[in-house]
Amino acid sequence: MLPSPSMTAIELEDFVAAAFSHAPRTYLCDAVTEHGVILRLPIGIEHGRPGGTVSGPAMMGLADAAAWLATLSRIGPVALAVTTNLNINFLRKPPIADIEAHADLIKLGKRLSVSDVRVISTATQELVAQATVTYSIPASR
């Protein structure tokens, strides 16, 4: 059983803005859910690739960020939680349109969290990628 969320979507957005004040915010946290978060990436020309689709690195980055914020939504603002594994399956070619990552924590331990992340095209509502992401949680939290 997962603990209740300890951070709201607004608190996660504020934390990311403060932790990465030197970088533009690209991901938007739409919701903290019962099992994780929903993160959205507004797609611009910088996320496209030849063939009129969203690039793999854009989808992978979104999946990674969603797993991180799903973890933080439960453990609080721990900036030094880091990715230890990310496995992604690209399922279909998404059109150039915003994508969402629905990240569900499937394990939250003292030192590791594991998330299942589904990347969905907002234009078609189709599942375009699926990732399993593991995060290492620092001992001093």
Description:
The protein has 141 residues and is of the alpha+beta class. It has one domain: Thiol Ester Dehydrase, Chain A (Roll), CATH 3.10.129.10. The protein is 22% helix and 38% strand. It has a six-stranded antiparallel sheet. Strands 3-4 form a two-stranded antiparallel sheet. A hairpin with a 3-residue loop joins strand 1 (28-32) and strand 2 (36-41). The protein is globular and about 45 Å long. The two termini are 20 Å apart.
Number of strands: 8
User: Average pLDDT, to the nearest integer?
Assistant: 95
Name the poorly predicted regions: none
CATH fold call: Thiol Ester Dehydrase, Chain A
Instruction: Write the CATH homologous superfamily.
Output: Hotdog Thioesterase
What would CATH call the class?
A: Alpha Beta
Work out the helix count: 2
Briefly characterize the structure.
The chain has 141 residues and is α+β, with helices and mostly antiparallel strands. It is built from two helices and eight strands.
